[in-house]
Amino acid sequence: MRFEGKTALITGAGRGIGLAVAHELARGGADLALNDLDGERLKASAAALREHGAKVSMHVGSVTDEGVADRMVSEAVAEHRKIDLLVNNAGGGPVATPWQAFSKTPTSDLRAFFELNFFSQATLLHLVLPDMVDRGYGKIVCVSSISAILGQENGAPYAAAKAALHGLVSSVSKEVARHGVTINAVVLGNPPHPSRTPDRQDYLNHLSHFDRVGRFEEFGKAIAFLLSDDSSYISGAAVPIDGGILAPRLNE
Length: 252
Ligand SMILES: NC(=O)c1ccc[n+]([C@@H]2O[C@H](COP(=O)([O-])OP(=O)(O)OC[C@H]3O[C@@H](n4cnc5c(N)ncnc54)[C@H](O)[C@@H]3O)[C@@H](O)[C@H]2O)c1
Known about the structure:
Blueprint: E1 7-10, H1 16-27, E2 31-36, H2 39-50, E3 56-60, H3 66-80, E4 85-88, H4 107-135, E5 138-145, H5 147-150, H6 156-176, E6 181-188, H7 198-207, H8 216-227, E7 238-241
Parallel strand pairs: 1-2, 1-4, 2-3, 4-5, 5-6, 6-7
Helix pairs in contact: 1-8, 3-4, 4-6
The structure holds nicotinamide-adenine-dinucleotide (NAD).
């Protein structure tokens, strides 16, 4: 029960990575404040999490809306008294035709990617950090992607927005670690994704050293480690959880 007495706020927790983290934390005794854009999805996920005995509150809305983010944090604090752990997870492609050559990408799309993958995370840091610093305790994980490091053809807005996060995380860490707050980025590669084509999946599996897709629980457990007190001397890092993709094979 390593998370007993702790409350975690997790964005985009209705499915996927966010939900996997929620299950790990609930198994460890945490209370959960869960956000998602999709209220029905969140309700179903919250019901499953309550089976672990977790106290779960739901906060529906888009993290890109500062009013929603502000309300979500106030409601979570009112319900659970405090936020000890933050998982800045919601992210991805915010616009209908996101993956295209940069020369064809309107600035509005570029801004939309930054709103979802960078500014929403920065806003939540603004909202939770003062209280964490005052209380001398907090653990934050910001979800990034291997695209931030490798770049991604036809995905420059996503890669650039995630790369900006790394500068945010390493900078903020220097300001808050001595106040008991750690903040790390996780650099995800090849988790399952519902809209990935089979060819793309085969290619990513080949890039990984395991020749397979990562399992949600493998991402959930690694992120939970960074949220636990076992990671007390790790901060400002960009930790790969990628099946080895960032260390490419050289002899093939
Ligand atoms: N799955 C991948 O291939 C992959 C790879 C690398 C990094 N990542 C990163 O991992 C994180 C989670 O990815 P995932 O694949 O689990 O996501 P996903 O697309 O499955 O979405 C997870 C949840 O987030 C919610 N969501 C989407 N936009 C939101 C918003 N604006 N506000 C609140 N909730 C919102 C969705 O409704 C969904 O329930 C993202 O930051 C993503 O960029 C994913």
